[in-house]
Amino acid sequence: MKADELRDLSEGELREHLVTARRELFGLRFQHATGELDNTAGLKHAKKEIARTLTVAHERGFDV
After folding, report:
1. How far is 33 from 49, CA to CA, in rounded Å?
2. Would you identify the CATH topology of the domain 3-60?
3. Full-model pTM
4. Model confidence over 29-55: pLDDT tens digits?
5. What are the strands, taking DSSP E only, across the chain?
């Protein structure tokens, strides 16, 4: 999701998106550790998604 799309979300939706992104990263890390992950580019994408979401949250002035 792009930053401008994240800015259109409400605070609750933004928090939910962050929880989902963190869950996805956890799953990818687990798959990577067990050797099941074929495409490791998903790890980078998930990290960027979390960083983008946190940036928008901090711009608004609330902690997540």
Report:
1. 21
2. Helix Hairpins (1.10.287)
3. 0.90
4. 999 999 999 999 999 999 999 999 999
5. none
